[in-house]
Amino acid sequence: MEHPPRPSPEALNGTVRIPYLFVLDEMEAAGNGDAGVALWQMLRNVRGRIDARDELPGILLMGESGELLDAVPELRTTLRGMTRLLRETRPDDDTRDGLVLGCAHLGLWAEGMGACRTALSFFALAEEMDPERPHLGYHVGRLARKLALYDLAEPWLKWAHRKSRAAGQWEVAALCASGLGNLYRQRGNLPLARRFHGFCLRIARRHDLRTLEGDALYDLAGMSFDAEDEEAAMNYVSDALAAYGPGHGQVYALAHDVAWFWMERPGRFAEAAEVLLGLVEHLWEPRARLLLFSNLTRAAAGAGWVKIFESAWAETLVNLRQLPSEEGHAVAMIHLALAAESLGYWDRASMVALDALRIAHRRQESEFILRAEAIHDAVQIKMMEEEIAPGFSADSPKRNSFLSERAASTGDALVGAMRARRDGAPESPIRAYIGQLYCT
């Protein structure tokens, strides 16, 4: 079967006169313009080395003492090492391998900075230099999917999948199948997405790839929740927990997503609140913690746990003040507004909905502008009508009792899996805070 063509740098750049110019824009937006110039020049240098073959191309970085080489401390060693390799008059396989690894390192760093087109370009060059490493092709496809370049991502993921299977690199093959599943899910082809996630699951089980097995089950659980097949979703969640094992880092992400699905779809606020409470002592990154407490506020309100609602509300406000960039502020305040609305606290709901609206306008977050406006308008109508009934009800008594029992047991399993620590670290002092939530 014919392999798909490699991605063209010009296809991303839009012009051949100034290649990779988008790197400067991406890194400037990330707040590191000097790094942008260094990465832009390095891409052009590597491209020139590939095109020159055995000839020595000109090097754009102005000597090894140039300031650009030291623009980013964590990249200094990589940039200096690649510059030396680019100047070699008799490049060999070791030269190529060093440049491949350097490009991969720079690509991963750029992705971490949010510069995904830059990252894609580095991985594309690395793959071009060494097409026998299928994991490089996987990264090209993965980044293209992340950039919504689906027509580019699909052939790359398929090509890397076939090549990794032929080489017996089953972890890469499973990752490619998972990437294709996510791609088809993004494009709305759910039957094909489910098929590829199932394919990833079979590869992972056959070759004892436990984390990838858990990831495939995680994806299948999310698809089942989306399809409102709660029983199947909870079966997948239980199997994912068994695959990950207690204390695995993915358990926390899985627990948070399950809690969110319970709030958004079936309205299982009590079960969601129990799981979110279990996450309090494990999530410490500021933005994740802000989202956690805002979700806990909403779940506690929906469950009718007023004291926990008040504590989580206050903690959310503390976390808002600790993030001056306002990243995630609008969505957190929307959760607070929904929580206040569900308890009939109209003044509070109106206040935070307006705050969310102002922040969303400042950050030009159109989705959150619409949601905040809808909540504020609904609250104003309820205030005028002096309605007492909450906008979001607690769990319906008509809900299937079997699924309620399954949800409770799944919640217990998630909380139990979070508590186990593989690294032997001591328990967090936040446990005292959780105890106060229950006792006050």
Based on the model shown, name its key terms:
mainly alpha, 71% helix, 21 helices, 440 residues
Layout of helices and strands:
Elements: H1 9-13, H2 22-29, H3 33-52, H4 76-86, H5 93-112, H6 116-129, H7 134-146, H8 150-166, H9 170-186, H10 190-206, H11 210-226, H12 230-244, H13 249-264, H14 269-279, H15 286-303, H16 306-321, H17 329-342, H18 346-362, H19 366-385, H20 401-419, H21 431-439
Helix pairs in contact: 2-3, 3-4, 3-6, 4-5, 5-6, 6-7, 7-8, 7-9, 8-9, 9-10, 9-11, 10-11, 11-12, 11-13, 12-20, 13-14, 13-20, 14-15, 14-20, 15-16, 15-17, 16-17, 17-18, 17-19, 18-19
Rg from Cα: 25 Å
Low-confidence stretches are: 387-398, 421-440
Relative strand content: under 5%
Q: Based on helices, strands and strand pairing, what is the structural class? A: mainly alpha
Distance between the termini: 67 Å
- Alpha plus pi helix count: 21
Q: Specify the helix fraction band.
A: over 70%
Question: What is the arithmetic mean of pLDDT?
Answer: 85
Largest sheet: none
Approximate shape:
globular
- The oligomeric state is single chain
H-E string: HHHHHHHHHHHHHHHHHHHHH
Counted beta strands? 0
